[in-house]
Design a protein that fits this description.
Elements lengths: L2 E2 L4 E4 L4 E4 L5 E4 L3 H13 L3 H5 L5 H10 L2 E2 L6 H5 L2 H4 L6 H9 L2 E5 L5 H11 L3 E5 L24 H12 L4 E5 L17 E4 L21 H4 L10 H12 L2 E7 L3 E4 L11 H8 L19 H21 L7 E6 L4 E6 L9
Length: about 350
Amino acid sequence: MRRLVDSVLVTNAGDRVILSTGSCDGLSLRGDLDRVERAVTLLRDGVDDSEINADRVPADLVAALTHMGWLTSEPRRTPAESTGRPGYLTLFAPGAPELQSRIAACSIMLLGVGGIGAVAAQHLVAAGVGRIVAVDPGVVEPHDLNGQPPYPMTAVGTPKVEALSGWLRGFAPETEVVPVRRRVASGADLDGLPQVDLVLIGADEPTEPADESAGPADEPAEPADESAGPADGPAGLGDVVWRWCRERGVAMSGVAVGDGHGYWGPLLSPRHGHCRGCFEREAGLSRERPPEGGHGPTPWSFGATSTVVAAWAVHDIVQYAATSECHTLNRRAHLDFAHGELHFLDGPRRCSCNR
């Protein structure tokens, strides 16, 4: 039996079918597209030599895929087998299969799938998270390509959530991906979306909440802008999302990069009695005025730093999904890239404002 490896992404480009793995290499298949698509579908499920000999799957296609290294004789694995890291999970707690099952049952919403969210999505599905709800209003632009690995040049002009979902389905077909092209400026914008266990914010504050035609707000925010202010201060995106999460018992975290530093957390859980406003008062955080200048690429964004903080955030989210504990549970991690220093800000044990 031979089947197409799970990492191969199949795209119908109208006059041809393109097979790729996100690298520069790929196959562009023309001719009888119906036959090609049927053959690819069969290969995705697995075929034996009799089907190849019967010409249900063209022999030249099999030869080309074999040359690319895109066919395997291994049986398809379960989500826990194909995406989990049971050995590493034992660092979190005993019983890796049970931990992997909890991760597979987890549903994560990503608000913003730019330099932060796209990288986070990649690591979440690789860890075996069962469902990703990707929310973003923007399209892939040329300036995104240097720091957002899932988006190739051919995706420029495509809605980010569609480009990301296509890539993720090829990378981890057992993960459910729900693309939602939407700007989030209020709790109502989150209503009606699939139920999730945690929301990860990797988006800027929307500068024009009521104007859906304003540009995308999908780039990672500067830490001082992303952090919501005290409970009696002006509401930002984090405040809006936290209120929505708190009403539904959904956990929330945030991640962003700034000029020479980045942060992830706090991971706040209503079920643990956490409170965003109380955390900020305890940690001494305050809101600064967001920078002006529209919706262009975040000037302090750099692919490597975005990747580092996004990966750390996912590490903590996966640990939380598996054990209900992690390093940034009610704590914010600040990483100083210039000096290689990591600091934590702790929040209070429980909410004291009753909001």
